[in-house]
Design brief:
This protein is an all-beta fold. It has one helix at residues 7-12, and strands at 2-3, 23-24, 37-38, 41-42, 46-47, 54-55, 57-59, 68-71, 78-84, 90-97, 102-109, 120-121, 139-142, 148-153, 167-171, 183-184, 197-200, 206-213, 224-231, 242-243, 258-261, 267-272, 282-287, 295-300, 313-316, 321-327, 330-337, 342-343, 355-362, 368-374, 382-389, 395-405, 412-415, 421-424.
Length: 425
C-alpha cells in the first residue's frame, strides 16, 4: 500500500515494523528520506523537525547488492571517514559547515549495534576545518586502545599567507570523552595545498603526512615532496617532520593522499606525483621500520598537465595492505606486500562513468569491497557505486549504484564481522 504521509511524520514516527507490502512514495520535491526492509526488519530513520535532514540506513539490495548496506552520514554531514578499532568499534568522522569554514564531528558504533553514538566535536576552535574541493578535509586513524587520531588542513592565518597554513592534529583524550585542543605539527615544511593524512598502529606510533615544497624549491609542483612527522607516544608529542623519500617525484598540488600503518612496523603512503609537471603517477611508498625509511613500491602512470583533484585509499588486507586510487577517470585497487615490495596487478570495475574518490576495504574472508563516486565535482553531487571482488581479486556479481552523494563529498566503508559491508555517504 502507498502511504501519503508527510516526510517529517514518516521519519519521526519511530515505527519499527510495517506490513510486508508497505511502500513509501517519494515525491521529487522531498529531501530524500527512505525506509526499506532489511532482512525482514526495518531500518529506522530520524529527521530533524526543522531542517528535515535525514540520517538513514537501508539495504542496498534494491540498488544491486544484498551484501552491502548504505548508510547516510549522520546529521547531513559530508566527507565521512571510517575506521574500525581492535575491539570492533566503528569510528566515524564527518564535516558540517560551509566550504571553507566548518567543524568535524566524531561518532562511534559499538559491535552489534546499528546506531551511532552522540557526536563529539573534534576541532575545539569552531570553524577551523574546511571541505574545499573534497580533498582538504579531516582524515581519521585509530591507534592503541581504540584512541581516535584526526588530522586536517588548517586555514592560513590571513589572506594570502597560504605558506603559513597549519597541518592540524588532535586525538581523543585518555577517557574518550572529548578531543584535545588541535595543534600544528609543522615545524619547517610549510606550503600545504592538497590534503594530508594520518596513520596509527597498536604500538603507540602515530604518523602525520602532508606534501609541501622542498626547502628552497622554486620548481612548483615538481619541487613538492611528501613529509612525515612521527609520534611514539600515542600522539602526545611529535618529532620534527622529515622527507619521506629523496626521489624527485613531485606532488600534485591539489590532490589528497592517504596513509596507513599496520601492527608489524610497516607504514604506507599513497599520493599523486608531479614530476616534469605532466607525470602525475599515483605513487605508493612503503616503510619497513616504523617510518624511518621509505621506498617507492609502485607508480601507476598518468600523463596529464592539470591537477585532477584526486584522493586515495589504504586499508588492511589479509596479506599486506590494499591501495586504491584514480587514474584517467577509472578507479583501481591493488594488494601490496610490504615484505617483498611486490604490488599486484591493479584491478578495476568494468565500464566507465567518470569515477573518483575510491575507498577500499577487506573482510575476514579475504573479499574486497571497492566503492567510489560517479559524476561528482567540486560543487556537484553524484552517485556512489561499488563492486565486491573475491579473494583472487576477480569481480563478483555483487555490485550496485545509488544516487545521493552530496556536493563536495565522497564515501567511506567498513566490513562487518559477518563479512558484509557498510558504505557511508
Amino acid at each position: 500500500m502507498i502511504m501519503n504521509t508527510s516526510l517529517y511524520e514518516l521519519c519521526s514516527s519511530g515505527r519499527k515494523s510495517a506490513p510486508s507490502d508497505f511502500v513509501v512514495k517519494l515525491e521529487p520535491t522531498h529531501v530524500g528520506c527512505y525506509n526499506s526492509r532489511v532482512d525482514g526488519a526495518w531500518a529506522r530513520t530520524r529527521v530533524a523537525a526543522l531542517a528535515l535532514s535525514c540520517c538513514f540506513v537501508f539495504s542496498a539490495s534494491g540498488a544491486g547488492s544484498d551484501r552491502v548496506t548504505l548508510v547516510r552520514t549522520p546529521e547531513g554531514g559530508i566527507q565521512p571517514q571510517a575506521a574500525v578499532d581492535s575491539r570492533g568499534t566503528v569510528h566515524l568522522i564527518y564535516y558540517k559547515g560551509g566550504n571553507m569554514k566548518g567543524d568535524v564531528f566524531h561518532v562511534r558504533q559499538p559491535p552489534g549495534q546499528t546506531e551511532f553514538s552522540k557526536p563529539i566535536q573534534v576541532n575545539t576552535r569552531p570553524g577551523s576545518a574546511m571541505a574545499a574541493g573534497t580533498i582538504r578535509g579531516a582524515q581519521l586513524a585509530v591507534g592503541r586502545d581504540g584512541r581516535a587520531h584526526v588530522a586536517w588542513n588548517g586555514h592560513a592565518p590571513r589572506k594570502g599567507a597560504w605558506m603559513e597554513a597549519p597541518m592540524l592534529y588532535t586525538r581523543l583524550n585518555d577517557v574518550g570523552t572529548a578531543f584535545e585542543p588541535e595543534r600544528d605539527v609543522i615545524t619547517s615544511a610549510r606550503g600545504l595545498d592538497g590534503g594530508g593524512s594520518v596513520a596509527a598502529d597498536s604500538r603507540g606510533n602515530v604518523y602525520i603526512f602532508w606534501h609541501a615544497p622542498r626547502p628552497g624549491s622554486t620548481n612548483g609542483e615538481a619541487g613538492r615532496a611528501v613529509f612525515v612527522a612521527r609520534s611514539q607516544d600515542d600522539g602526545k608529542t611529535f618529532a620534527p617532520e622529515k622527507l619521506a623519500v629523496r626521489a624527485p617525484t613531485g606532488a600534485c598540488g591539489c590532490c589528497g593522499m592517504k596513509a596507513f600503518a599496520d601492527n608489524a612496523g610497516n607504514v604506507f603512503a599513497l599520493y599523486r606525483g608531479a614530476s616534469e609537471k605532466v607525470n602525475r603517477d599515483e605513487i605508493l611508498l612503503i616503510s619497513h621500520n616504523h617510518g624511518t625509511d621509505f621506498e617507492v613500491a609502485n607508480a601507476h602512470p598518468w600523463k596529464i598537465a592539470t591537477c585532477p583533484m584526486s584522493s586515495a585509499s589504504l586499508a588492511a588486507g589479509t596479506e599486506g595492505a590494499l591501495a586504491a586510487w584514480e587514474t584517467a577517470g577509472q578507479v583501481y585497487f591493488a594488494r601490496a606486500n610490504p615484505a617483498t615490495l611486490q604490488v599486484s596487478e591493479p584491478a578495476a570495475p568494468s565500464g566507465f562513468a567518470k569515477r573518483k574518490h575510491p575507498v577500499v576495504v577487506a573482510n575476514k574472508q579475504g573479499e574486497t569491497l571497492l566503492a567510489w563516486t560517479e559524476s561528482t565535482g567540486m560543487a556537484k553531487g553524484g552517485a556512489v557505486a561499488w563492486q565486491i571482488f573475491d579473494r583472487a581479486g576477480k569481480p563478483t556479481s555483487e555490485k550496485g549504484r545509488a544516487k545521493g552523494v552530496p556536493a563536495s563529498s565522497l564515501a567511506t566503508a567498513f566490513a562487518q564481522p559477518d563479512g558484509t559491508f557498510v558504505i557511508v555517504y
